[in-house]
Design brief:
Helix 5 packs across helix 7. The protein has eight helices and six strands. Helix 3 links the parallel strand 2 and strand 3. The longest helix is centred in the first third of the chain and has 18 residues. About 35% of the residues are buried.
């Protein structure tokens, strides 16, 4: 018997609510935009935040932002299955090319590409009156980030569950920080999300791929490796006040 997506969502939202409450991610009056890459993580986040706003006292407007482009630049064809899904979701959707500085050299490195995408997302959200941008990073991403910071920077820190920018004008949140990739994978299968757009050619060579491989190796002898790295990262990361 196939799992019921509504039942799975009920349990996943417990951890989403926990993250939102603990880190003060969404408050009354906020307008929330979701960065939708088209992968299982961002589509799961969009679905969960949509379900959540339907059952709370002060629902928030929700916007899906899908950026076209990767390290090769913005001239990437639209992925029709994803576009069709978003347009049928009844959630307001904006599709924009990644904004590049004049003279930007292509292909970009991963960090430069991520910076350009982040800048474009914040600008698109701000221009449409949305002050919160939600990313689909999950608990495994947090654990991998802690490991990468240890290996490359000698810092036991992870990414911020919530970050405030431009004097509090914009907020970046990661409501899936307590949800594992395995849980998201199961939810995505139950929801029948469309296949994701083709991956960037440089993604297979990223440091995050290395971190994932190291974590899988570590778990053969330390079952709680991911959980411990998540906890350590959150403990030693300078979190903003609520």
């Amino acid at each position: 018997m196939a799992p019921d997506p509504e039942r799975l969502a009920f349990w996943l939202l417990k951890n989403v609510d926990k993250a939102i409450r603990e880190f003060g991610m969404i408050a009354e009056g906020d307008r929330v935009a979701v960065a939708v890459s088209g992968g299982k993580d961002s589509l799961s986040l969009l679905r969960l935040l949509d379900l959540r706003r339907r059952r709370i006292q002060h629902p928030y407007p929700l916007l899906a932002i899908h950026l076209i482009g990767d390290s090769r630049g913005p001239e990437i064809p639209l992925h029709a299955p994803l576009v069709d899904y978003l347009r049928a979701s009844q959630i307001e959707t904006v599709i924009e090319p990644v904004s590049l500085a004049e003279g930007e050299e292509l292909p970009m490195g991963c960090q430069r590409c991520a910076w350009n995408r982040r800048r474009t997302l914040l600008q698109v959200a701000h221009d449409r009156g949305y002050n919160v941008v939600a990313f689909g990073h999950h608990a495994d991403d947090f654990a991998e980030t802690t490991l990468l910071n240890l290996l490359y920077s000698a810092r036991a820190e992870t990414m911020l569950p919530r970050g405030d920018y431009f004097g509090g004008l914009m907020r970046v949140i990661r409501p899936l920080c307590y949800v594992t990739e395995g849980e998201i994978r199961r939810f995505a299968r139950a929801c029948g999300f469309p296949d994701p757009p083709p991956a960037c050619p440089q993604s297979a060579n990223s440091r995050r791929q290395l971190a994932g491989a190291l974590l899988r190796l570590a778990e053969t002898g330390a079952q709680d490796a991911r959980v411990n790295l998540l906890r350590a990262g959150l403990k030693y990361t300078a979190l903003p006040e609520k």
